[in-house]
Amino acid sequence: MFKRLMEEARNVMEKDPAARSILEVFLCYPGFHAVNAYRIHHRLYLRKWYLLARIISQITRNLTGIEIHSGAKIGRKLFIDHGMGVVIGETAEIGDNVTMYHGVTLGGTGKDKGKRHPTVEDNVIIGAGAKILGPILIGANSKIGANSVVLKDVTKNSTMVGIPAKSVIPRENNVLYIYSDAVI
Fold this sequence. Notes:
The protein is of the alpha/beta class. Helices cover 29% and strands 22% of the residues. It has helices at residues 2-15, 22-28, 30-46, 50-64, and strands at 67-68, 73-74, 79-81, 87-88, 93-94, 99-101, 105-107, 119-120, 125-126, 131-133, 137-138, 143-144, 149-150, 159-161, 166-170, 176-178.
């Protein structure tokens, strides 16, 4: 367990230039606290101790401003930067080495039973305020722009922006082109 904590703390140090020490990460990073509390309440959830798992998740939510449902499946090295307002739903799945900024929602779109939240593959970056809704797939190595609303599957290595989100092609001199050739 200590090895996993150190791996998560080093991940924060690598991804956040403002992090000055491992001790600072352990004491002051709500994303780090929320992810590690999730590891505990997720184990309880898997053992069918649903109420205790949910109580711990709600206490963590009140302390960090980050809500991670105990039933979500999260891989290694999830970095939630700043984190306030992040919501990760019950059937969400998150791969390894994913970065999320504040205000991100991995949410459902209705009262359906079964898989109703997104699956995010490895090495994805999700910008502040992005909403990814429904049982969709976000392919590996993709980027979701800030405040984008993603309602459809995203192929790997894509960059998505807008409401609703559309794929763009990054070009030289920082101009982005939407696949329909409209410049934004």
